[in-house]
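Session log. Operator J.P. requested a structure for one protein chain; no other inputs attached. Running the standard single-chain path with token output.
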Amino acid sequence: MVLFDDMEHDGLVGGQWVYGVIIYTSVLTTVLLKAALITNMWTKWTVLAIPGSLLLWFAFLPVYAVVAPKFRTSTEYEGIITHIYANPRFWLTVILLSTLCMVRDYGYKYLKRMYFTKAYHIVQEIQKFNIPDYRPRMERFKKAVHKVRLLQRLRRTRGYAFSQNEGGQEKIIRAYDTTMQKPSGY
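Structure written below.
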């Protein structure tokens, strides 16, 4: 808050609303960077969601800060844009604060991948870089993966009320002759 309570060139003071927008922007940037860090596969939807959210915020704030005070709602946002977007300390704060918050997460992921590697990390890198491996172990690995995928497909297709897999009931059903009359008294 010390950075933004000083007088601006027009004589106005930034205050708590400027500070609040700076903190919100920093938190939003940090959360989106964390989402980008844990995203395994980037699709058009993740690209639209993660960077798109930040761009939407940077476009929404000036519109809201101009329109809302004219309708007598959020009058504290009047003139806030000149304190924020034109101030290099705002950009420096958002970048530094978000970077500082993410150092631990990126460092942990780096250490885990480089020094405490698991087998699935190696498989991910083999698949990512499309490294051919002609050793017999790779063939067994591919067969094992194929079997696991077949089992997963099997699990998805079982469990319906009238499925074809009766599980031994056909022997009981076939043991009785349904063409004969039932004995009386039942």
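Operator note: The mean pLDDT is 81.
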